[in-house]
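User: Run a structure prediction on this.
Assistant: Running it now.
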Amino acid sequence: MTLSLEEALLAASRPAERVEDRHWTKAFFFDEGFLGFQGHFPGHPVLPAMTQITMARLFFREVVGPADALTVVSAKYRRPIRPRQPLIAHLVIGASGKVTVDIHAAEGETFLVASSMQIKPLIFG
């Protein structure tokens, strides 16, 4: 049985945890065989931006609920994410409704920001 990317992401994550009002965290861990690394780049795997955006979308859906679509308002990719690197994603809903998702990657004993996204849910009908 072949997993979809979404199924593989869910299998490689823990449930979201509320940190405080409007702030949640979610842990991810991807080994070398994780679907998201396939083909990007052989022998030097790096987690692609589209996989990180899918992580943000699934995280949003778990915390807030379904949205017909999400648009990425802005994104910055600061560090490559490699296999076996523990990740902690933070989702924050600002007072204005702005949603940010930051993915922090373990670098030794410290977690550093690997990517930051601002996303916006689109509800139709």
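DSSP finds two helices and six strands in the chain.
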